[in-house]
Design goal:
The complex is a heterodimer of chains A (376) and B (159). Chain A contains ten helices and 17 strands. Chain A is of the alpha+beta class and 376 residues long. Chain A has a 17-stranded mixed sheet that branches. In chain A, strand 2 and strand 3 form a beta hairpin. In chain A, helix 4 packs antiparallel against helix 5. Chain A is flat and about 80 Å long. By secondary structure, chain B is mainly alpha-helical. Chain B is 67% helix and 0% strand. Chain B has seven helices and no strands. In chain B, helix 1 crosses helix 5. The chains are: A alpha+beta (376), B mainly alpha (159).
């Protein structure tokens, strides 16, 4: 075959029509593991390199007509996306120090010590206090909404394009933000909480003890001990300036939670977790695939656990084409765990913009959350 | 949006993989879509979206190459752990040979052989005509067969 020869013999190369070209099929098989894999959906081949379409398909004759709807879909997407882009760019822009708009309030709410009745905005350095029956909702610049429950104290620290920070001294906070990771942050006694494109809620006392729950996307908690990543559908305990707990799925069984608490308690006492100890064995016995976030977090926080059966168990829960090197994990090289992080069944942080429902008005959800304490 | 992201992500990844290592291509795929989202107001003709996206991907790959140091490590672990050592070597040699081809052949072959798109799918999702894609596939494959047969695997050309 020459470069200028007839191309009618390349049907398999063109559209996989039979007969199969063995050279092409072999290259497909060899190279398919390098293909893009959608992390948000079911992974294509994770172990065996089977080329897509290795079975010959009948020759297709009306290609132009068949692809017309796809062209139309792409054009429609582009049109929608142009509008989205303009809107998105506008909502990210925020003049430094521009006050945040208060959406609603009820009960006892004070701003800088004075009644907030009739007050429409919160300025930088302004402090909100809600009483036992108080609640307030306000816009987070142009990127989202925040609700503050009863008995809470919150200060607006900084607001400008790309950076919006509040300090939650105590109380209950709910936030829904649609923006690139890290633009919105909540300071707490002993820790910082960063939105990575999501919806989350925090409940904390004045010492920073409490709980954080993520409803969509991811949140990162930082204190002087650890960085903890918490995905949607998971929760984590906060212990002031002591190490935060290990992230756990909201559906984790009581046995799993008890085993995880026991391991967290060992860390809190400054002890070492035995990789083959009873706590780890109980954790493995009670774990489901949804609990992989906890196992992975433990391997990152306590690399020596990888010496025991938790390593194999995690590998079974998170099958991946790439190899995770046990020695690298034990040595504390956190990048070694990257294939398992990628295999977790959550949206990728870099895909924050796919969490577009978080950009929708939050009115009813915020109200439902504010009511939840009264009813619960 | 998610569905269309899925439809175009293999194209972006394939173009990137034509120029960069696998691990970098994975990372840059997300960056290309974020760049596209930010710059969508520059796109005047929605029908030009596929070609416009490919150009952004190409520029991202070239920028990454200019940085010289790879964003991440070697990509040998990208290959299935189930693959034999010989298969892994053959895959790496084949990919190096594809990357050494002229750009038009290189990108089209990666989309076909690595990403698993058919010729019509490549045409639809890159904005190229079906005729151009068919010629690129044919000539690129011919050159690739010659290169591999000669054992001339362009060793050392890995970026």
């Amino acid at each position: 075959m020459s470069g200028n020869g007839p191309i009618r013999d390349d049907d398999y190369l063109w559209d996989r029509s039979s007969p199969v070209d063995e050279d092409v099929a072999r290259l497909e098989r060899l190279l398919s593991p390098y293909a893009y894999r959608a992390e948000r959906g079911p992974a294509r081949d994770s172990g065996q390199a089977v080329p897509r379409g290795s079975q010959p398909v009948p020759r297709r004759r009306s290609a132009r007509r068949r692809w017309r709807p796809v062209f139309a879909a792409a054009a429609a997407f582009a049109l929608c996306a142009i509008g989205l882009s303009v809107w998105h760019g506008q909502r990210l822009e925020w003049e430094a120090g521009q006050p945040w708009r208060i959406v609603a309030q009820r009960g006892e709410v004070r701003i800088d010590g004075r009644s907030a009745a009739g007050v429409a905005t919160l300025a930088t350095a302004g402090e909100i206090r809600t009483g036992a029956d108080g609640a307030l909702r306000l816009r987070v610049a142009g990127i989202g909404e925040l609700a503050l429950g009863e008995g809470s104290t919150l200060r607006l620290i900084e607001t400008r394009t790309g950076r919006h920070r509040v300090q939650l001294q105590e109380g209950r906070l709910w936030a829904r933000v649609w923006a690139p990771p890290g633009q919105f942050g909540v300071g707490m006694p002993g820790a910082e909480v960063y939105d990575l494109g999501c919806e989350f809620e925090i409940e904390s006392d004045a010492a920073g003890n409490g709980i954080l729950t993520v409803r969509s996307g991811w949140v990162q908690i930082e204190n002087r001990w650890h960085e903890v990543l918490v995905p949607q559908g998971a929760t984590v305990r906060l212990h002031g300036d002591a190490p935060p707990g290990t992230a756990r799925d909201l559906g984790a069984s009581a046995a799993f939670r008890a085993a995880l608490d026991a391991i967290d308690a060992i860390e809190a006492r400054g002890g070492d977790v035995d990789p083959r100890g009873a706590e780890v064995q109980r954790l493995i016995a009670a774990s489901r695939r949804e609990d992989a976030i906890s196992l992975l977090s433990l391997l990152q926080r306590h690399p020596r656990i990888a010496e025991g059966p938790l390593f194999e168990h995690t590998a079974r829960l998170l099958p991946t084409a790439a190899t995770v090197d046990r020695a690298e994990v034990i040595a504390g090289r956190t990048h070694a765990l990257a294939p398992w992080w990628s295999a977790l069944p959550y949206p990728r942080m870099k895909h924050w913009w796919l969490q577009w429902p978080d950009a929708l008005p939050a009115g009813n959800d915020a109200e439902v959350w504010l009511q939840s304490r009264k009813e619960g | 949006m998610d569905a269309l992201y899925r439809a175009f992500a293999p194209v972006v990844h394939g173009v990137l993989l034509s120029h960069a290592q696998r691990a970098d291509a994975d990372d840059l795929t997300q960056d290309v879509f974020e760049t596209a989202l930010r710059r969508l107001h520059e796109l005047r003709d929605p029908a030009a979206f596929p070609g416009w996206l490919v150009r952004i991907a190409r520029h991202a790959a070239i920028d990454a190459r200019r940085r010289r140091t790879p964003l991440t490590g070697v990509d040998i672990e990208a290959v299935s752990s189930a693959a034999t050592h010989e298969d892994r070597l053959d895959a790496e040699r084949s990919l190096r040979a594809i990357r050494a081809l002229p750009e038009a052949y290189r990108e089209t072959l990666v989309l076909r052989l690595v990403e698993g798109l058919s010729g019509p799918e490549i045409a639809e999702r890159t904005g190229l005509t079906a005729g151009s894609v068919r010629v690129n596939l044919h000539r690129g494959m011919t050159l690739l067969r010659e290169t591999l047969a000669a054992g001339h695997d362009t060793r050392g050309s890995e970026r």
